[in-house]
Records
---
Amino acid sequence: NAGVTQTPKFQVLKTGQSMTLQCAQDMNHEYMSWYRQDPGMGLRLIHYSVGAGITDQGEVPNGYNVSRSTTEDFPLRLLSAAPSQTSVYFCASSYSDGGGNAETQYFGPGTRLLVL
Amino acid sequence: RKEVEQDPGPFNVPEGATVAFNCTYSNSASQSFFWYRQDCRKEPKLLMSVYSSGNEDGRFTAQLNRASQYISLLIRDSKLSDSATYLCVVNPNNLFFGTGTRLTVIP
């Protein structure tokens, strides 16, 4: 098992550019999520998905889009990058309990994004 | 009010010391509680779940106090390898992470 994989590891963007951060998991987890981690702010939930075809907003969704066409993949799209989106992005996956809530999360290695 | 609040530290302790971290949460409906460990420039990894009755894993003990809405982590006989940031995590529906408490164990 590769677990949770993320690409790219590092990315530099100019303001206004768009890009997609890739995330894949091979553990057949229903629940997948994207977080950003900023100094002093901890991990904040951007978007999450409880299964293929289902996505929902987290705490800080503005400026990001997601889709979940398969169980394995959960890409995060930045529509028009801004310097405020400079951060470390983590994708995570887990089983969900009977109520669609996340259980123990397994994290990918992260993507470090710098927006100039 | 933040969902989860932690003392950011840093905690600098000598090898062999006992150190305790506390964390408070705001949502009384929270069902699951965890401690994660994050090494510098790495992803968070689960350290241990926290159960209502308290639980122990080697040198690590986690406690939950639902009445006061806090969880704690106790590390006994600290090792150099315990140096990391410890994240308190609470799950009322999605996972909410604390900002983390940084621990440095000094030789």
Note: The longest strand of chain B covers residues 84-91.
---
Amino acid sequence: DAGVTQSPTHLIKTRGQQVTLRCSPKSGHDTVSWYQQALGQGPQFIFQYYEEEERQRGNFPDRFSGHQFPNYSSELNVNALLLGDSALYLCASSLEVSAKNIQYFGAGTRLSVL
Amino acid sequence: AQSVTQLGSHVSVSEGALVLLRCNYSSSVPPYLFWYVQYPNQGLQLLLKYTSAATLVKGINGFEAEFKKSETSFHLTKPSAHMSDAAEYFCAVSEYARGNKLVFGAGTILRVKS
């Protein structure tokens, strides 16, 4: 049973560019959440997708957008990259109907903005 | 708003000694609480969870945590540290009724000395 998979593992971009990160949820999961983990900090919630719609959003600007596909996989897009966007981006999946709300994390995509 | 405070950004113990990592939370409704572990260059792995059942929760790798509502605490313990426990540990809270985003603490890096 494959867990949460993210691609690519590493990415280097320059300021002003755009980036797309991808996530495949754990088998059977229908909800995907994205988190940003800056160096030395805990993960910060960006947004969550369920039934192909953004259900909940954290305190991130509109430059951060996402999408969920019918197969439950998801993309995170960041436009007009800033140096401060350099971080580890984590994807987590969960099962909506589960009240226990256990989220399973992928290994992350490390984004470096130069 | 939910929040998590982890006391001590770095904790150092000798191999075989007790591990105690502190976590205090703030939540306006009964919370779900989690401890995750992160090894270098990896994603987050769930250690244990509290979801309003037993207040003493046992997790993987010999870790356990006790939910104390009166103290708003959920400290993580392990009776005897092993070298392989060296990692960063994150406490997180969620309020399922408000969507299931996780709010993380800043993390505690555990060092195990031989």
Note: Chain A is about 0% helix and 50% strand.
---
Amino acid sequence: QVQLVQSGAEVKKPGASVLVSCKTSGYNFTTSGISWVRQAPGQGLEWMGWISVYTGNRNYAEQTQGRVTLTTDTSSTTAYMELRSLRSDDTAVYYCARTDYRSGWYYFDFWGQGTLVTVSP
Amino acid sequence: DIVMTQSPDSLAVSLGERATINCKSSQSVFHRSSNKNYLAWYQQKPGQPPKLLIYWASTRESGVPDRFSGSGSGTDFTLTINSLQAEDVAVYYCQQYYSTPFFGQGTKLEIK
């Protein structure tokens, strides 16, 4: 069965960086895309960006562009999201989600369990 | 960005009754070349990730009970839950993927 398993919770200080991993299984990783979506405490869902495992293409949301980098490792079928220069308003649960390889503009059919990133002095 | 606005923000429905959630986009999400509406619905229960219910505005995801249905076209969409069950208590989100993905603010569904 399709599974996306994310790394554990992180606590970071403002200005630091965080790397969240998303280990996938149960499907052909190389012909997929992975999007990242975050959810601040008690808030809604915000799309952050997409990477096509197949083509290497990437799209980033304007809100975090310049601070976020998406990568994949096909040998371990794992996707990564790095967010730099952390601020208090980056405190959120970060989700990876499977999507289409051709475009970041698509729906998300399987999701990771989420990783809580807390930014605190 | 195509902004999504849901209504109501919350609603309470009796068990066995129908729940209706609306979603309006700031621009049409209908793609003429594919003849499809680029609109999805998700269910999120506390402490869980979102779960895909509906895509292409009306296509039910595999395994989703048929009491869930999606309708609408262009800028106005509806998620209908017939014969509400206790396990349907959740927050529901619509999402457009016609352009940069954008979610509605969510609708909290409770039991009356």
Note: Residues 3 and 25 of chain A are 5 Å apart (CA to CA).
